């Protein structure tokens, strides 16, 4: 596919090169022998490096070396590192989308969406280090957005309201994904879950956090809730927060329907 397949070629050409390449609408020039390399091989190699050594370890030369080619060989397929990063992000966002089920509760579907997004941050710790430079533009990202909009198809909401709720759930999933990623990184590097949650520092904090200076934190700390040292009656904090967000969406829709 190239820009000639579209009626408005000028609009297509305004897309950033990496985005255009993710859609397969950039005609590649100066390729090497058939089967030598491909965009997918390059992107897969870059993801493997990032998964193992972090985003900072990814460079065109490092990827080329891992594939046994010269750096210039890669430029026949991808114009530079920035475009490579776009393609990496799109590739790991291309997650399996569950089939539509007519009787599945929308809250369950939204929870599945959120945890699938969280899982991307856990599987690819570098994903959260990617800068956000625009709304999603690549097909892998947009396919996930389409999944969320499918869930909201019967909702009595405007398109703007749906997009706002999509941003709300996606932002929460991003925050949870970063927390889960960072905790797993601490444990992988020799730390402990207790240290991450603060349980190992509870006694010290109880001596340092005085009620005159921290009047509202002090009772929470003393109860063990702050450092996760007491039995948690609400279960998983992240799941609890997600359920409250879904409560808010449900309440909003009920109120909107009642006001009509």
What does this structure look like?
The structure is a single chain. The protein is an all-alpha fold. The protein is built from 13 helices and no strands. The model has no long low-confidence stretch (mean pLDDT 91).
**Mean model confidence by pLDDT:** 91
**How many structural domains does the protein architecture include?**
2
Largest sheet: none
Question: What class would the helix/strand composition place it in?
Answer: mainly alpha
The percentage of residues in β strands lies in under 5%
**Do you know the CATH topology of the largest domain?**
Tetracycline Repressor, domain 2
Relative helix content: 55-70%
| Strand count | 0
Number of helices: 13
What is the 3D form? flat
Residue stretches low in confidence (pLDDT < 50, at least 5 long) are: none
Distance linking N and C termini: 47 Å
CATH architecture of the largest domain: Orthogonal Bundle
Give the class-level CATH name of the largest domain: Mainly Alpha
Radius of gyration: 23 Å
> Order of helices and strands, N to C?
HHHHHHHHHHHHH
